[in-house]
Write a structure and sequence with these properties.
Rossmann fold; single chain; 14 strands; Dihydrodipicolinate Reductase, domain 2; alpha/beta; six-stranded parallel beta sheet; eight-stranded mixed beta sheet; 9 helices
Length: about 325
């Protein structure tokens, strides 16, 4: 029997991601949903045929028939509800960014460990079949030695959006830049030893646009940019000594199935030559949220997070450094 899930809140990501994801998973069961608006909880429960609806997060956490909770709440609420869920013996899948800073992330991870429950940061893209396949291509030396990873993620938001509130962990670094950092860390297989970043600030003091460069100890560089004031872009690129892999719709693959472009040179001296091989790679149309849910279920059964999952502490340390670099110049 797989995990019985409870959702803390009626966030948009629940509707478009976790509810269909849990339903499409092989192991998970969606057992309950909670909202501070009891009527909304009941309406969602009726719409999605969820067995139980609660008018408070406390009630759901107290439910003995819930094994794991998903926390999609605003950033400043991740820590308190993770701690409360862990105290109730619930495993926690927490939306990114895991916390407001690395100190909070460390406290959350240590608290969950002490309570005997698993904590995982919800980076669904890590669990795509495309991600697994591209990692293998890189590991097999298909593009030679990896030297550069690049990622751009941006879209414009309303000036009054809560994601520009500094007290709530606002700014694109936490919301979408975190994907580029996560991608760079996954493919570099190391933690960066040097970080530089610049950005343009909003009137509230949070970043609107950011460009960061990360240097890893294994000769891999990363260039990550993100913005809440630029047109929609969502792409990453892996550049090796013998080729390039371009990944469109990087973290939001189309339902019809994700793709990638492999451009490979025959030899170092042939860079840019007409003989370069260009191939479009296609991958299965798998629900990445379902894959994440099943990975978490297997992790709970094994008592440890399976690759490529993470608890988010190292991720938060890098985000902290980027924010510090932008704010201090």
């Amino acid at each position: 029997m797989g995990l019985r899930w409870g959702l803390l809140g009626c966030a948009r990501i629940c509707r478009r991601g976790l509810i269909p994801g849990i339903r499409a998973s092989e192991l998970g069961t969606l057992a309950a949903l909670a909202s501070r608006d009891g009527d909304q909880a009941k309406a969602w429960a009726a719409e999605f045929a969820i067995p139980r609806a609660y008018g408070s997060y406390e009630e759901l956490i107290a439910d003995p028939e819930i094994d794991a909770v998903y926390i999609p709440l605003p950033n400043e609420l991740h820590k308190p509800w993770t701690l409360k869920a862990a105290d109730a013996g619930k495993h926690v899948l927490c939306e990114k960014p895991l916390a407001l800073d690395a100190g909070e992330a460390r406290e959350m991870a240590e608290h969950c460990r002490a309570r005997g429950v698993l904590l995982m940061e919800a980076f669904m893209w890590r669990h795509q079949p495309r991600t697994h396949a591209i990692r293998k291509l890189v590991d097999d030396g298909t593009i030679g030695d990896l030297r550069l990873v690049r990622c751009s993620f941006s879209f414009p938001i309303d000036p009054n959006d809560w994601r520009l509130d500094p007290e709530r962990g606002g700014g694109p670094i936490w919301d979408i830049g975190t994907y580029g950092v996560n991608m760079a860390r996954l493919f570099a297989k190391e933690e960066p030893t040097r970080i530089q970043a610049v950005g343009r600030l909003a009137a509230s003091g949070v970043e609107m646009s950011v460009a960061a460069v990360l240097q890893f100890p294994n000769d891999v560089l990363a260039a990550v940019d993100c913005s809440f004031e630029q047109p929609f872009r969502c792409v990453y690129e892996l550049v090796g000594t013998r080729g390039v892999i371009e990944v469109p719709d990087a973290f939001l693959p189309p339902a019809s199935g994700p793709t990638a472009i492999l451009r490979k040179t025959a030899a170092p001296s042939d860079v840019g030559a007409a003989g370069d091989r260009i191939e479009t790679l296609t991958f299965p149309a798998v629900d990445q949220y379902a894959a994440m849910v099943d990975s978490f279920d297997r992790s709970v059964a094994a008592g440890t997070l399976e690759d490529p999952a993470q608890d988010g502490q190292a991720q938060m340390r890098v985000l902290d450094e980027i924010c510090r670099a932008v704010q201090t110049g």
